């Protein structure tokens, strides 16, 4: 019998590709045929990283489509990338589906797209294919996007997304407040970009509503108020590589597993893990201050310093820092983060608060020190610090720098107060229960599988 064939289309950023790949692998283990559609640019990176780690994506077929930009174009310019994708990729996807359907024995039965790629749902609609959306970020943010038209209509936001009067927005009485300063489109540095990001956010609302199922990489224990107010949003997460057997794929960089052996040498609950996801970049002053802050803590640390995190990386460390920290610190360019966070030596996570990092920290019962940069990270910080109370915010001084003393003091506070650890362990238990047999995410995922098979 022919397997049901599913296409999965993530947004081309690392924090979207990883959970979408986790979803793909989960579906493949349930006997679906799964094709994962990266952009050509990311496909090359993923395949290169895979070849360097000697593993192959056995379960999922990897294909790619052009994103419309030149290889040399700057893809960290999100609005430029997004605009090009909207123009070019719908036609490319349609051609791909036609190619697959052209074969005797194969036919695409379902398209699952990231809401930011909701144009793919329009393609599926046009071609008469089942469609679902998969949200990889905090579900409250999807709720915020869906609420934009009414927020504008009620005069809370102006037509460019700028707050008209209130300091915070509450989408429903059971949901946490969203500070207007945390609206993710306002993270862009100039006004044109802010307007564009707001415009794109509006543009995905109607196509996303075409989805017959809207599944979210979240758990009802994390965002109970949101799921109560938006019953069509179905939590199926957290999707973590530890929830299933087998290797992961979808990473843009080769991971340096050597740090796991280094962690084995450290006492339990002694190491600070420091990582800022795939996008964040540092300026020289802040980079140096972080290095000196880690030195000041006197604790062992594992620090992920991506090659592109700062210009001229080789000259960015304080003088003799690496020599001084040779025994106490381990620096890698990309870590096997989920394995790191589950290591018994980890005590605290200094994080940029990306949603995946947030889920991964909670799933391993690790308290946070929050260092968000932009986009949804600032909102996720509010969840961590104000709502779940499992971490502390690192504050900048008047010159906009997080100082070394602030890092040391907050670390001592978070580790010195058992409340943070107690609350995160409690949340860990709930979140892991939700993906076990009988849990709410597990049940929603089972229902989703039945719907696809139907
Ligand atoms: N990650 C990793 N190794 C690293 C740093 C990050 O594997 O050294 C993974 C991390 O586990 C997470 C993803 O990259 O799954 C980053 O996603 P997140 O949403 O936290 O942040 P983003 O990169 O989107 O800002």
UniProtKB/TrEMBL annotation:
InterPro entries from the UniProt entry: UDP_glucos_trans
Swiss-Prot/TrEMBL keywords: Transferase
GO molecular function: quercetin 3-O-glucosyltransferase activity; quercetin 7-O-glucosyltransferase activity
Domain of life: Eukaryota
CDD domains: GT1_Gtf-like
Pfam families assigned: UDPGT (PF00201)
Family under the similarity heading: Belongs to the UDP-glycosyltransferase family.
Protein name as catalogued: UDP-glycosyltransferase
């Amino acid at each position: 019998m022919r397997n049901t064939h599913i296409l999965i289309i993530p947004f081309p950023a690392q924090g979207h590709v990883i959970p979408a790949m986790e979803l793909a692998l989960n579906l493949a283990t349930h006997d679906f045929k799964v094709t994962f559609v990266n952009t050509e640019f990311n496909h090359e990176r993923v395949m290169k990283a895979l070849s360097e780690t000697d593993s192959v994506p056995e379960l999922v077929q990897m294909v790619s489509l052009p994103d419309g930009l030149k290889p040399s174009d700057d893809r960290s310019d999100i609005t430029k990338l997004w605009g090009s994708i909207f123009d070019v990729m719908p036609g490319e996807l349609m051609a791909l589906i036609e190619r697959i359907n052209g074969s005797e024995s194969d036919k695409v039965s379902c398209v699952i797209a990231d809401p930011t790629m909701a144009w793919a749902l329009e393609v599926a609609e046009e071609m008469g294919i089942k469609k679902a959306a998969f949200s990889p970020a905090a579900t409250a943010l999807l709720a915020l996007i869906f609420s934009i038209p009414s927020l504008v209509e009620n005069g809370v936001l102006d037509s460019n997304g700028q707050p008209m009067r209130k300091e915070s927005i509450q989408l429903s009485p059971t949901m946490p407040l969203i500070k207007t300063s945390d609206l993710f489109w306002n993270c862009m540095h100039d006004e044109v970009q802010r307007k564009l990001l707001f415009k794109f956010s509006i543009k995905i609302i109607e196509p996303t509503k075409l989805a017959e199922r809207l599944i979210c990489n979240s758990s009802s224990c994390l965002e109970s108020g949101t799921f109560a107010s938006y019953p069509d949003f179905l939590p199926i997460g957290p999707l973590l590589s530890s929830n299933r057997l087998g290797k992961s794929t979808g990473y843009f960089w080769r991971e340096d597993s050597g740090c796991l052996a280094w962690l084995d040498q450290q006492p339990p609950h002694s190491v600070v893990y420091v990582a800022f996801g795939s996008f964040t970049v540092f300026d020289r002053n802040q980079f140096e201050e972080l290095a000196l802050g880690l030195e000041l803590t006197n604790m062992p640390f594992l620090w992920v310093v991506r090659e592109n995190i700062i210009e001229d990386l080789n000259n960015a460390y304080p003088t003799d820092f690496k020599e001084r920290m040779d025994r106490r610190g381990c620096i890698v360019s990309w870590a096997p983060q989920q394995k790191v966070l589950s290591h018994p030596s980890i005590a605290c996570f200094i994080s940029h608060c990306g949603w995946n990092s947030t889920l991964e920290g909670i799933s391993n019962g690790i308290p946070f020190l929050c260092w968000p940069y932009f986009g949804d990270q600032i909102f996720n910080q509010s969840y961590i610090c104000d709502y779940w109370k499992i971490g502390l915010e690192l504050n900048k001084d008047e010159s906009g720098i997080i100082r070394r003393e602030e890092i040391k003091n907050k670390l001592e506070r978070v580790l010195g107060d058992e409340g943070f650890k107690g609350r995160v362990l409690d949340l860990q238990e709930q979140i892991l229960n939700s993906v076990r047999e009988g849990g709410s995410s597990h049940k929603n995922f089972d229902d989703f599988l039945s719907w696809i098979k139907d």
